[in-house]
Specification:
Oligomer: heterotrimer
Strand content of chain B: 25-35%
Low-confidence stretches of chain C: 332-338
Order of helices and strands of chain C: EEEHEEHEHHHHHEHEHEEHHHEE
Strand order of the largest sheet of chain B: 6-7-8-3-9-10-12-11
Largest interface: A-B, 42 and 54 residues
Structural class of chain C: alpha/beta
Radius of gyration of chain C: 21 Å
Helix content of chain C: 25-40%
Distance between the termini of chain C: 49 Å
CATH superfamily of the largest domain in chain C: P-loop containing nucleotide triphosphate hydrolases
Mean pLDDT of chain C: 86
Largest sheet of chain C: 8 strands, mixed
Number of domains of chain C: 2
Strand content of chain C: 15-25%
Shape of chain C: globular
Chains: A mainly alpha, B alpha/beta, C alpha/beta
Strand order of the largest sheet of chain C: 6-7-8-3-9-10-12-11
Distance between the termini of chain B: 33 Å
Number of strands of chain C: 12
Number of helices of chain C: 12
Low-confidence stretches of chain B: 1-10
CATH class of the largest domain in chain C: Alpha Beta
Order of helices and strands of chain B: EEEHEEHEHHHEHEHEEHHHEE
Radius of gyration of chain B: 22 Å
Largest sheet of chain B: 8 strands, mixed
Number of strands of chain B: 12
Number of helices of chain B: 10
Chain lengths: 332, 366, 338
């Protein structure tokens, strides 16, 4: 093709009005997310939490089951059992033990920190699994209406129809007994993470399917087809990037849900087994003694749980706003 | 059924008798969309015939305008020609050009006729290099998550043309051709105005040096002054590269400006087909009369003195087209017992002028 | 009773957006007489719809704000009217028809319920009397079987029929001013002809003034007595329809007319298009806003914003520094004198 069709005199003028610097989708996304105050705070909180939960235990000497070695160090804060007058090992918060100790004298702060690992492992692993399986199934169902769609969506219906807690409880106790599984999969947190991954992808698959159903009718997809692109290229290069926003947002919310369900299972005694600390398990233990005035273990572990889930959900809110294509700044 | 003989203008027939100067021949094209009911076991309860048995041909280097109101099947026709939709019946013959090896080790370009509608995947992919499309909506037709370079080079990547560096050069060249600055390759579509986006869409269509471009309402979404720029660009490109256009539009004045010949569609049928000036100056089908008389002309005196033919009612549903002539329910000159019983066939009324009406008459509408 | 029904004076409506302040309407003044049919032409972003919304009091703070200006409607200053008074004017004395009839009708109520609600709100009548008025207004817009169609829902009507319903709703209270914002843009051309003819006849019967906003110069040519051309938030030219169409004095109106493909014109090789694109309403150019696209611009056009002023023709005003010296009728697309 020779350069420059003749007579397009108004040509270069047609390029007027474009700003000097390219504004990428990423720029837009960052500006909008930065403007979302709750999401900003949530992001800082989550970053700190990650640092503390996954890094701090290696850097500091805080051990998971650190016992309060010198029980009598602070006699003033030492409590006695109101019934028999015996000294208790469960110390209230003090300067050396900011969250106090639990009923067998372990430092609650270090247990809350270690317990966060289970929660975050479950949240992130489940999120990753759900995003992968849900996206693939949803994409295939949305792009190939007909038999593929019918079969996949009936599977989704079954998955969504399963009663979550009973199934998780039953399989949670069965899975570790399967001999062929690698050892790490038999640890409490991982079992739950994979179980929840399998149980929670249905919702995301439906969202992705709906997204694909509408995107596949868009003219830019027809244009890709007219250019000769094959299905794989259309699905992954043309449609999927446009479906990322709902996938990211829905996944974030799944992370929050997974953390709560893990806590609930551990609270009920079906999740991660003691002595491995989890927020749910600590809340259960704390709740048993809270009525006797030993409130701090329950307060510390459940606050950590609530704060984390809130932060994750705020993050999801912020992402939704930042990624919402209807907010795209239109050039008028 | 259209049973007219093969002529230079309206055609039905196979690939063997397709004249040398004809690039595209649409032969008895039908497109039905099934209507399905039921929740678990969907069963087909009927069909919408969006395009019912139309035939036409496009000559090399010309612009054929296909006009009609919404729901007349013009966009469906475009998508069947592109094979973005699978035609239910009929053929779309295209005269393709291919490089083939000769006995002495060189190559030569030979042309032969293939049916787009029944081509296998490999043939179709190769055909995509010669047939391209520009869409109506400059906002929906560009992938918002891709840069201009990505969008325009997509056809090149898919057909393995050149290296990454060569493709980028080609993209810059194409942007210059359509009147955009070559520096804008790393920008996203949302940074451009509607007219600029439509230019990007045109650049994409030109990337593979096609011979035939389907223009599906390419200017209807644009402001008037921008519309004129894009129309000028399309005409310049046609001249420069010897392109053949199938121009789909609902705006009859735009079609008059750009087309050499015009087909008017109503409810899935071609009702009139003629050279441009014949169609506008001496239209014969009552629907064409009404359509032309309804288009406003930017001239107050002429506009106020014109007689307007106001049609009664709305376009019937294509799921349940009226018997006989499809226009009979709204036609001012319909004759009961004839028009609602017999379907009029496209009949030659003059040099290249075909009309599907039992009572055709020339009427000037402005 | 004075002849002037509506007087808009130096209206400025701004919007705060993420990118900056959008000066959507920036210094617009015009009057509409009783019974006058006024066309407002302009491309997207010219401020024509925002002008209409400002008159209707539909600008929503805090994003949108009428910064200065006065809108005088038959002696009432609409900008200072309390909201409950304004509600009586809106839909009662001034009615508005929008582009998309599907979104302006509520899909969960029948046409009758929506019509009757409007009528009861603005006229002191009983429900049953309102129903009769509603049926009559559907009959006025030539909807067959009006009495029974009152009980149908919006989705049971076609696009053209829905726009008829909107007109019926707009005219049911005998407004003095009807604002129609692109009323036929979403419709097919044969339906557009039906709707325009209908609107013309009904407005004529009742002596209603009409403000017709459109991008289609052809529609204006057939329908309007007077025309104002808007560009980038301001009026660049205003006059009778024949002034604007046969003797445009602003290079933009002239360019716009030259850009139009015409049904009655055989093919010219090239359209006489206006180069470039409208400016961003956030970053308006200094001086004349049309200057970057204008073939006739001088240094003065860069320095000062031209104001709408009289020309040598009575009632024909234009905002161009060179209006007096340019004779655009003589300029062809090939030879634009610099």
């Amino acid at each position: 093709m020779s350069n420059g069709a003749s007579g397009i005199d108004e040509s270069i003028d047609a390029a007027e009005g474009i700003s000097a610097e390219p504004v990428t989708q990423w720029d837009l996304f960052r500006t909008r997310l930065a403007r979302h105050k709750q999401a900003r705070i949530a992001a800082i909180f989550l970053a700190l939490l990650f640092a503390i939960v996954f890094v701090a235990p290696f850097v500091t000497c805080a051990e998971r089951d650190a016992y309060c070695g010198k029980l009598l160090e602070h006699p003033a804060t030492q409590l006695r059992d109101p019934e028999n007058g015996l000294l208790l090992v469960q110390n209230p918060p003090s300067t050396t033990r900011p969250f106090g100790t639990d009923d067998i004298g372990r430092d609650v702060l270090s247990r809350v920190i270690h317990g966060g690992r289970a929660s975050l492992t479950v949240g992130l692993t489940t999120g990753l699994l759900v995003a992968t399986v849900g996206t693939i199934v949803g994409a295939l169902a949305g792009y190939y209406p007909g038999a593929v769609d019918q079969v996949l969506m009936r599977i989704v219906d079954v998955i969504l129809g399963l009663p979550l807690l009973p199934v998780a409880i039953v399989f949670g106790s069965l899975v570790p007994q399967i001999p062929v599984l690698p050892a790490f999969l038999k640890e409490g947190a991982w079992v739950i993470a994979f179980l929840l991954g399998i149980l929670l992808w249905g919702g995301l698959a439906r969202i992705v399917r709906a997204e694909f159903l509408s995107l596949r009718e868009k003219e830019f997809v027809e244009a890709a087809r007219a250019a000769g692109s094959n299905d794989r290229r259309i699905i992954f290069r043309h449609i999927l990037p446009n479906a990322m926003s709902p996938i990211i947002v829905a996944t974030t919310l799944v992370v929050g849900t997974a953390i709560i369900i893990e806590a609930a299972l551990s609270f009920l005694g079906f999740g991660v087994r003691p002595p491995t600390p989890t927020w749910g398990g600590m809340s259960a233990a704390g709740a048993r003694v809270a009525t006797k005035g030993f409130w701090w273990e329950f307060l510390a572990s459940s606050s950590a749980l609530v704060a984390t889930v809130l932060a994750v959900n705020f993050m999801g809110d912020g992402l939704r706003d930042a990624l919402d294509p209807t907010q795209t700044i239109e050039r008028k | 059924m259209t049973t007219g003989k093969i002529t230079e203008y309206v055609a039905d027939g196979g690939p063997e008798d397709m004249p040398e100067d004809v690039l595209l021949r649409v032969n008895h094209l039908v497109k039905e969309f099934p209507i399905k009911r039921g929740i678990f076991f969907k069963s087909q309860v009927g069909a919408v015939q969006a395009v019912s048995d139309i035939s036409f041909q496009v000559r090399k280097g010309e612009t054929l305008g296909l006009v009609g109101e919404s729901g007349c099947g013009k966009s469906t026709t475009a998508r069947c020609v592109m094979r973005l939709l699978e035609p239910t019946e009929g053929q779309v013959y295209f005269r393709r050009e291919r490089e083939v090896a000769t006995a002495d080790g060189g190559t030569e370009v030979v042309s032969d006729v293939v049916d787009v509608a029944s081509a296998d995947a490999g043939t179709l992919r190769a055909l995509r290099r010669q047939i391209q499309i520009v869409f109506q909506d400059p906002y929906a037709s560009l992938n918002p998550r891709m840069t201009v370079a990505g969008i325009v080079s997509e056809p090149l990547i898919v057909h393995n043309v050149g290296t990454a560096q060569e493709r980028l050069e080609k993209v810059k060249e194409l942007l210059a051709v359509v009147g955009l600055s070559p520096e804008h390759t790393n920008r996203y579509p949302h940074e451009f105005s509607g007219g600029q986006r439509q230019r990007i869409g045109i650049a994409r269509a030109l990337a593979l040096n096609p011979r035939f471009i389907v223009l599906d309402e390419p200017v209807s979404a644009l402001d008037v002054s921008i519309q004129a720029q894009v129309l000028n660009l399309l005409q310049d490109l046609q001249e420069e590269y010897g392109l053949t256009y199938l121009f789909i539009a609902h705006d009859l004045s735009v079609v008059r400006h750009i087309s050499d010949r015009v087909a008017v569609m109503y409810l899935g049928k071609i009702v009139e087909f003629a050279e441009r000036d014949t169609l506008y100056d001496a239209p014969m089908h009552p629907y064409t009369h009404a359509l032309l008389s309804a288009v406003p002309i930017p001239d107050p005196e002429l506009e106020r003195s014109r007689e307007r033919i106001i049609l009664e009612g709305d376009i019937p549903s294509p799921a349940d087209p009226p018997p006989g002539c499809r226009f009979n329910t709204r036609c001012p000159i319909a004759v009961q017992g004839k028009c609602d019983v017999d379907e009029p066939l496209l009949t030659q009324m003059g040099e290249g002028h075909w009309v599907a009406c039992h009572f055709p008459e020339v009427k000037k509408v402005f | 009773m004075s002849d002037v029904l509506l007087a808009v004076d130096d209206l400025r409506t701004y919007f705060a957006t993420e990118e900056g302040v959008v000066r959507a309407v920036d210094g617009v003044s015009f009057t509409i007489n009783r019974g006058e049919r006024r066309g407002v032409v302009g491309e997207s972003g010219s401020g024509k719809s925002v002008t209409a919304m400002s008159i209707m009091g539909l600008i929503e703070p805090p994003a949108g704000q009428i910064v200065t200006g006065a809108i005088d409607f038959d002696g009432l200053n609409l900008l200072e009217l309390p909201e409950d008074e304004m509600r009586k004017v809106r839909g009662g004395r001034i009615a508005m028809i929008f582009q998309d009839p599907m979104t302006s009708l509520n899909p969960v109520y029948t046409i009758g319920q929506q019509l009757i609600e409007t009528i009861v709100l603005h006229q002191n009548v009983s429900k049953s009397a309102a129903r009769e008025i509603a049926a009559q207004s559907l009959a006025d817009v030539q909807i067959p079987y009006p009495a029974s169609r009152l009980d149908d829902f919006p989705h049971q009507f076609s696009g053209g029929m829905r726009q008829r319903v909107m007109i019926a709703m707009g005219l049911s209270c005998n407004p003095e001013l009807l604002i129609a914002d692109e009323p036929t843009t979403a419709l097919d051309v044969t339906t557009q002809a039906q709707i325009l003819d209908l609107m013309l006849a009904l407005a004529d019967d009742r002596g209603t003034s009409v403000l017709l906003i459109t991008h289609d110069l052809g529609v204006v040519a057939g329908f309007c007595d007077t025309v104002q051309v808007m560009y980038a938030g301001g009026i660049v030219e205003s006059g009778s329809a024949s002034d604007i169409f046969y003797d445009p004095k602003h290079p933009y109106s002239w360019g716009l007319l030259g850009s139009m493909t015409r049904l009655d014109a055989a093919q010219m090789h090239r359209l006489n298009s206006v180069r470039g694109a409208p400016p961003s309403v956030i970053n308006l150019p200094e001086g004349c806003r049309f200057r970057p696209r204008c073939d006739f611009a001088l240094d003065v056009c860069r320095e000062r914003l031209p104001l709408l002023g009289p020309s040598d023709v009575e009632g024909h005003t234009v905002a161009c520094h060179r209006a007096a010296e340019l004779d655009l009728k003589l300029v062809t697309s090939e030879g634009a004198p610099r």
